Amino acid sequence: MTARLQSNPVPDHRAAQQPRDSQSIGTLLRRLVGELATLLRQEFALASAELMQGLRGMLTGAAAAMAGGVVLFAGILVLLSSAVLGLSRVVAPWLAALIVGSAVSIAGVFALSVGVRRLRPQSLKPERAARSLSKDKAVLMRRAP
Fold first, then answer.
1. How distant is the alpha carbon of residue 91 from its chain centre?
2. How far apart are CA 125 and CA 90, in angstroms?
3. According to the model, what pLDDT value does residue 4 have?
4. What Cα–Cα distance (Å) separates residue 87 from each residue in 1, 53, 73, 90?
5. What is the pLDDT of residue 19?
6. Regarding predicted confidence, which is higher, 65 or 145?
7. What is the CA radius of gyration of the chain?
């Protein structure tokens, strides 16, 4: 979905028109610096786009989870009160509330631990940009004298 962003560097028409063999070292260095700057801008734009995409996904998921949690909470409260009332016909009312409260607390701890594990920032790591930068570094290291 994320494509490399194209910047509009000002091309050096004189350097482009000269044959490569006859270009001066200064011209070649200027072109190299310009191309490296463009490459770095594009890599930064890719990393930023990936980060924003990850953040949007996390925010959307968090909002949906919150809305569902509010509605679910109201329904659970009603079900829990009915469970306490029903169990109080068999055991003492205080014991019925203790049993239901303990069971709900155990389920809540489990749900909380699952949610915390999913909120780890690993989804924010710009993996494609990191791979692309590694490839660029490898190419530059091979061409270095």
1. 50
2. 54
3. 45
4. 55, 49, 21, 5
5. 59
6. 65
7. 30
Predicted confidence (pLDDT) per residue in 37-96, tens digit: 999 899 899 888 888 988 888 899 899 999 999 999 899 899 999 999 999 999 999 999
Rounded to two decimals, the pTM is 0.39
Structure tokens at 108: 């809540």
d(CA 83, CA 90): 11
Rounded CA separation 44/129 (Å): 8
> CA dihedral defined by 96, 98, 100, 104, rounded to 10 degrees?
180
How many residues would you count in the chain? Answer: 145
Instruction: Write out the two tokens for 66.
Output: 């919150």
pLDDT on residue 86 = 95
93: tokens are 């009312």
Closest to 53 measured CA to CA, from 131, 125, 118 = 125
E strand residue ranges, the chain? none
> Hey, what's the torsion of the CAs at 90, 95, 97, 103, to 10 degrees?
-100
C-alpha pair distances (Å), 136 with each of 2, 9, 18, 49, 143: 18, 19, 27, 19, 11
Residue 113 CA to residue 105 CA, distance in Å, equals: 12
